[in-house]
Amino acid sequence: MANEHDAEELRKAGLTPGPNSLENLGISTGEHGQGYPRHYPQPPDPLGEPLTIRQTAKLLGCSAWTVRHAYLPRGLPFLRSGPLGKLIFYRAQVVRWILERQRKGGK
User: pLDDT, tens digit, for every residue of 56-68?
Assistant: First the structure.
């Protein structure tokens, strides 16, 4: 069962353990091994989560073909995992790119 601190955090967030909670399913909710201490906030990830080309296309509201053939030549930031590797996009960079284009009037 979660400790009182965890239960209080869930209550404050408006989340209460239900019949399918981890405790009721027999799954431990305790932290195992060494992790980032709770009393220190996790540093923000400046890049955001990594995205595939399909996830990026969904975020942009277009197809993967459009990402590859229209947006990459216009400067959409990406990382190639190797000389012929897959393309990796990062959510924060993609969002920043969108916002910059919107400020410039879509150019």
Answer: 999 999 999 999 9
Separation CA 8–CA 79 (nearest Å): 41
Task: Of 19-28, 45-54, 56-65, give the lowest mean pLDDT range.
Answer: 19-28
Structure-derived torsion over alpha carbons of residues 11, 12, 14, 19, reported in degrees to the nearest 10: -20
User: CA nearest 94: which of 45, 47, 61, 29?
Assistant: 47
> What does the domain layout of the chain look like in residue ranges?
1-42, 50-103
Residue 80 pairs with which residues in a beta bridge? 87
Average pLDDT over residues 73-102: 93
Architecture of domain 50-103: Orthogonal Bundle (1.10)
Reduce the secondary structure of 46-97 to three states and give it as a string: CCCCEECHHHHHHHHCCCHHHHHHHHCCCCCCCEECCCCCCEEEEHHHHHHH
